[in-house]
Amino acid sequence: MIPSHLSIEITQRCSKGCAFCYASSTPAGDPGWTADELLRFATDVTAAGVQSISLGGGEPLEHPEWREILDGLRPLLPRTLTTNGLPLDAGAFDDLVAAAPDKVHLSIHNPGWDGEVSRVIRQVLALESAGIPSGVNLVVRRSTLEACAAVVRRLAEVGVGLDRIVLLPLRGSGADVADTPGAKEIAAVAGSRQFRATSCLTSCQASPRFASIGWDKTVALCSYTTSRRPMATLDAAGLAAAVEGLGLTPCAVLSRNAVA
What we know:
By secondary structure, the protein is of the alpha/beta class. It is 28% helix and 17% strand. It has a single domain, classed as Aldolase class I (TIM Barrel, Alpha-Beta Barrel). It has helices at 35-47, 66-73, 93-99, 114-129, 145-157, 183-189, 236-243, and strands spanning 5-9, 52-56, 79-83, 103-108, 134-140, 165-169, 196-197, 210-213, 218-220, 229-230. It has a 10-stranded mixed sheet, with helices on one face.
């Protein structure tokens, strides 16, 4: 039995190198999966029941073969992508539109920085105009609640509603646990309206439908946990064996260096 939905960190490289990144991404991070590895893996797991793959990192658009990966996945299953957006202004925009992913979410890590917020809003609207469904992943800290609420209002003004925003409480091995907001604080950012967030917002629990696969080919039941297990083989059998009996370490006690 394998999960039906996979999130795959295709690379550990990211020019931003945020301190809180759960993948410990850096500009000099590991290249991660090759296109051939990923497409062979995706072909096998799709035949075994995987229904969608979400690509992340690191920064997926810094992977040297990201276009080959998106093109190769196209006939197999729905493809979504999360990006910090910086490569879009560095020449990747037209290629991304041509690759026609099913959805692209852009991340806002610093809601108090107008430069980042304005850029992401511009890029989301540009993708929408080009026919690519788009949205925003907004990282929420306890220390930035007011700034995040202001971003939500600003997005609403340009037609990006809460149905297209994922409110992500700060988590990860480099995160300050004291700065991680609770469910009520996240709800306040949304103006006490219905919103999208991580499924673990109120309790730490795994879903049998989901698995996160790292740039290092380790498997976890959550993107943030350190309960990870390497796949012995890059195929459906390797994935099934990796998730069998795999635990879930709450991210409040994270140490990404540990691998189950």
